Amino acid sequence: MIFYFSGTGNSKWVARQVAAYQHESLIAIADELAGGADLIYTLQPSEVVGFVFPVYSWAPPAIVMEFISKVRFTNAEGHYFFFVCTCGDEAGLTLNIMNESVASKGWTWQAGFTIIMPNNYVSFPGFDTDPKELEQQKLHAAIDEMERINQELASRSNVFQCKVGSWAYVKSRIISKLFNKYQVTAKPFFATDDCISCGLCEQHCPVHNVKVHIKPEWGNHCTSCLACYHICPRHAIHYGKATLKKHQYFHPECK
What we know:
single chain; alpha/beta
């Protein structure tokens, strides 16, 4: 089983590569949580369990942490558990946080990886997407990196290759908490008169928090993935004033 969460497609693309290479089923974390059923799974003898997700403010997204806290495997012992996180530059203490998240679950991670993908966070001053040339370089490099990671996973390697970066404690333990408290909200979103009511924002919201009634309207379950902003073909969706002069990015194979 490959569980994944993705907003603008980077992690979805990675999850697809992993699921195909490892011959495992692909399961959307947001859909499982929305289903309301008990998150209890029984694993087949040779089945591996992977989690694929983006790094938000140098830590796993709150929705991923919620899912891990609720999920249960009836026969976890002896199975291979791993995670792959996508980020634009660095993952901070994501590995530490992931280890802490399963400390009382009855299973541990056997492997963990960071894969660098194009930046998509634009909701804060000083943050924007990558220049197109760098975006293409990252997408191209990710193909070879995915092949290498898949080979490690196929051989059931016990390896952790997560890019920590600088000031990791401050970023992952302090800034990340402030991000979750103040930035994970849909309140600043609005649509300009350039909106053509195409519905793409509604279709691509992984938590079904956007409904289009002439213009999009946002509910109270936002994860700040920014899929609605980045998928808009008219650049009509904005997050307050923060994105008025920013750019857009959505993985080309996941639109």
